[in-house]
Amino acid sequence: MTSITTKNSVVHFNTKVYKELNAYIKQTNPSIIFVLVDTNTHNFCLPNFLAQLESGDIIVEVMEMPEGEDHKTIDICTGVWEALSEYNADRKSLLINLGGGVVTDLGGFVASTYMRGIDYINIPTSLLAMVDASVGGKTGVDLGVLKNQIGIVSEASMVLIDTSFLETLPPNQMVSGYAEMLKHGLIYDKNYWKSLIDFENLDISELDGLIYDSVIIKNKVVTEDPKEQGLRKILNFGHTLGHAIESYFLGNADKTPLLHGEAIAIGMILESFISNKSESLSDQELKEITEGILKTFSKVEIDKNDQKIIIDLLKHDKKNSHGIVKFVLLEAIGQPKIDCQVTNELIVEAFMYYNSLT
Fold first, then answer.
1. pTM of the full predicted structure?
2. In this structure, which of 153, 237, 252, 280 has its CB flanked by the most CB atoms within 10 Å?
C-alpha cells in the first residue's frame, strides 16, 4: 500500500511499518524511547512490536495505563507525565503510543504538552483507531463523562498501521471500529458505503483495502480543513447524539457502558431520521441506512428518562456556538450539511423512531 501523506505527517501500512519506524529512529536518534501501552496491548501487541523495533543503544522504557474509556483522564495523564519526568525524558525523547483510540488520544496529548511538546508516533491497534484516530491530529482526554473536552490538535510524526494487530481484537471492538467506516461512506462516498453494508459477508482479505480507503477519505477532509472551521465538521455525523449517548451510558451505574462505535451507530440512525424530517434525505435512503446499521449493531433500549438526560448533555457538544446545538445532517448519502439546528421535539421523535425499530 502506498503511504498516505497528511498535512504534517505520513501514514505507513503493513510491510513499510517497521522499516519506516526504524529508519526514523536511526535518523532522529531520540534520547530515550518511551512506549505507552494499556493492559491489553501490553499483553497482546507489545511483544511483537518490541521484536521488530531496532533501537540500538537507545534506552526503551514501557509505560502501562489501564485499558478503557473511563481511564482517558487527566489523572492518567499526570501519571504518564510524572513517569516521563522520573525517567529523565527531555525534548529529544520519543513517545510511541501502541494501542487503541484511548492510548493514541491520551498519549498524543501527553506528548504534545510535556515540555511544551516532544515527538510522538501513533501505532493504532484497533480498527477504530486505524480509521478514525490515525489522521487529523486530535488529541485529548475526557472531562468526567464528557468526551474529549480537553485536548489540542497536534499531529504525530508518523502513524504506523499494522493490520495484523486486528487479530488480537474481540469481535465487539471490530464492530465498534466498523461504525466509523460506515460514517465515512455516509458523509463522503455512497459507493464506499455500499461496499461496507454487507459486513457479515465481508471477506477478511478485503479489509485492508477498506481501511486504506477510510484513511484516504478522512485525510482528504482534514487536509482541506485542519482546524474544523467548515468541512471537517462533517466527520461529526452521528456524533452529536452519539457522544451524548456514550457519555450517559458511561456515567450511569445502572447502564452497561457502550463502546464508542456502538453509541455512534445509534447516533447515525437518529441523525439520519432527523435528516429525513428536516432535510432532503429520502425515505428509501433512511431505510437503507437504518437496515444497514442494524445488520451489525444491536438495538439498545433508551427510555424517556434516558432521552431527557441525553438531550441535556447536548449542550456540551464541541460544535456548539453561542449556546446553539449544531448538527451534521444528510441531504443524501454522501451529501452532508453542517451547522444544522434541530428542535428537542424532533430529537424526541427520532428516539421514538429508533425505539420502534425491530
1. 0.94
2. 237
